[in-house]
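Field log, afternoon session.

UNIT: design team B
ACTIVITY: writing a sequence onto a fixed backbone
BACKBONE:
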């Protein structure tokens, strides 16, 4: 199953990466424009999804630097989700 999914993503990897980058731009733009009125839970979930997508693409490309960078953003996103949800 993962082989088929990986092959599909790799076939359209530039598109998936562009979608991930646009998602990240949208999430940070919301915070920049709306400030304290931002829908923080939405932003953190959206940002974490794009980090997962971009990490997957970096892994398929075997790009260690971007894999590490985006894996870090997954962790930041999880902390952001937990804080926005009042869990920590």
């Amino acid at each position: 199953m993962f082989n088929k999914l990986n092959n599909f993503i790799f076939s359209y990897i530039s598109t998936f990466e562009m979608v991930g980058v646009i998602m990240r731009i949208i999430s940070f733009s919301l915070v920049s424009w709306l400030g304290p009125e931002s829908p923080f839970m939405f932003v953190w979930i959206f940002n974490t999804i794009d980090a997962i997508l971009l990490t997957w693409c970096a892994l398929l490309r075997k790009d260690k630097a971007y894999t590490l960078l985006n894996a870090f953003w997954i962790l930041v996103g999880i902390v952001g989700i937990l804080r926005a949800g009042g869990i920590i």
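LOG NOTE: The two ends are 36 Å apart (CA to CA).
NEXT ACTIVITY: expression trials, pending approval
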